[in-house]
Design a protein that fits this description.
The structure holds two protein chains of two kinds. The two termini of chain A are about 45 Å apart. By secondary structure, chain A is mainly alpha-helical. Chain B is mainly alpha-helical. Chain B folds into two domains: about 55 residues; about 220 residues, MetI-like (MetI-like fold, Orthogonal Bundle), CATH 1.10.3720.10. Chain B is built from 15 helices and no strands. In chain B, helix 14 packs antiparallel against helix 15. The longest helix of chain B is centred in the N-terminal third of the chain and has 35 residues. The chains are: A mainly alpha, B mainly alpha. Chain B: It is found in: Cell membrane.
Amino acid sequence: MTRRAVARALVYLSLILATLVVLLPLTVVFLTSLKTPGEMAGDSGALTPPDDPLNFHNYVTAFQDGRMLPAFGNTAVILVVAIGGTVLIGSMTAYAVDRFRFRFRKPVLALFLVAALVPGVTTQVATFQIVNSLGMFDSLWAPIALYMGTDIVSIYIFLQFVRSIPVSLDESARLDGANALTIYWKIILPLLRPAIATVVIVKGINVYNDFYIPFLYMPSEDLGVISTSLFRFKGPFGAHWETISAGAVLVIVPTLIVFLLLQRFIYNGFTEGATK
Amino acid sequence: MTDTTEKTARAPVSGPPAPAAPRPARRWRGATPWLFLLAPLTLLIVFTYAPIANMVAYSFTDWDGVSPELRYTGAGNYAELFTRSDLFEVFWVSGYYLAASVFQIAAALYFATILSFNVRFRNFFKGVLFFPYLINGVAIGFVFLYFFQDGGTLDSVLGLLGVETDRAWLGTPVSANTSLAAVSVWRYLGLNFVLFLGAIQAIPGELYEAAELDGANRWQQFRHIIAPGIRPVLSLSVILSVSGSLSVFEIPYVMTGGATGTETFVIQTVKLAFQFNKTGLASAAAVVLLLIILAVTWVQRRLVPDDKVDLV
């Protein structure tokens, strides 16, 4: 019995240790974001709490000088358009491929499946030239088009889901005189709600966090999204860790809120997204 | 080059197969799926297949990405890639991340196993372990830049424990790469963990009860019930780790910019293509990376046949 108790204690010890490893770096950055430049220059170590725990001055600096407000705006625009587009494109593809029998159906399906194996990072050298020749370079359209056009995982999720919707629903609607578009819009799309929720969550978090694509395609400062704007803190705020920390906290807090509110959906979404 | 791209992009879409049936209603039905596929296929071809085709074409030229003229150089770029040691070095850097991902998978498996049993505050621990995966990569880069800084978080913690260090954690290639790989474990452990946990929890509970009645201990339960249940997810994690370690970008780019020997394959390719205008060479590098990843995927599919391939 004592051996069991020791094992139990070790299990909890490892969990507490892991919790410390995860939370400590984040907590320290949060504490740093509340310190004044004077405190930072002084001898106070990284672990000491700030003198004034309500000193939000650095957040104001990050928002104003760090241009975080337009960055959140740009990110929001990209999020809404790209996710809306992904949902439409994914569900349309799934509907067409699952509900119709047409020539070249299998080759079309294979095109989508094989594309899932190609990691986006590898092809950017050439994708860049295409985006550039379409005149989308350095505009919000570049990331929107890329997020919409290269998301095969969502198509998978929709495809699995469309299959579970009984065909008899389509047929009875067709007998009532509905055409394909009406069936898609009035019957399939509303029934896809759970799949849409998954796609919106997974895609939303990925788009919010993406750095690579906005960094490559939107060098203009006005077009900064949260990742690239935060990245630019490195220059002007060089050694001002209190401002950089405030910027990092500003970016992390929305994620934390979404995570706390939607925990269950997020676990399911990422499990589905990765295993499909 | 772009013109041909656009033409190939539109071709399958603008030319739907002519339906054989004469009745207008039938003909319309034949075109319907293509109307739904118009936008998805165009995007797929323009942003996935055309780039791959172009990339392979560029890789045999000395194109700089801007000027209208380019020369065919045969396999010259590939030869350069494999013979110039400074270009090849990035593969050794991937080794750090690959080694780290072995530790990462083991740790994720450990935490998934213990949290699948009855543990207090289970949801709290689950959330804490998973949350880093959701955090913005640039923010993580800054958090750990401060963590490893001289007199930063790590030094302060070590100081509390009575260990005085004055080493620059990101100062030498070995130390820097190890630190960056550790950050990558911190960031990605949560995904592996949640995948494992999901697979373990999908195992019916009666199996454990039956095993317990038969006197099986925790290790035997793991060995004979859990391990077989998570095999598909384990193989998925392995392949994600391999392709992940080859395409590391954000963490080292934000934290060191690729300095002190921390340049990864993707950082090097981005620099070649967009700073040094060596589109041809960068394309060759990207083709090599793509081939490696496809090969790894293929091997994995052969080793662990996926029983869920029912899409076609």
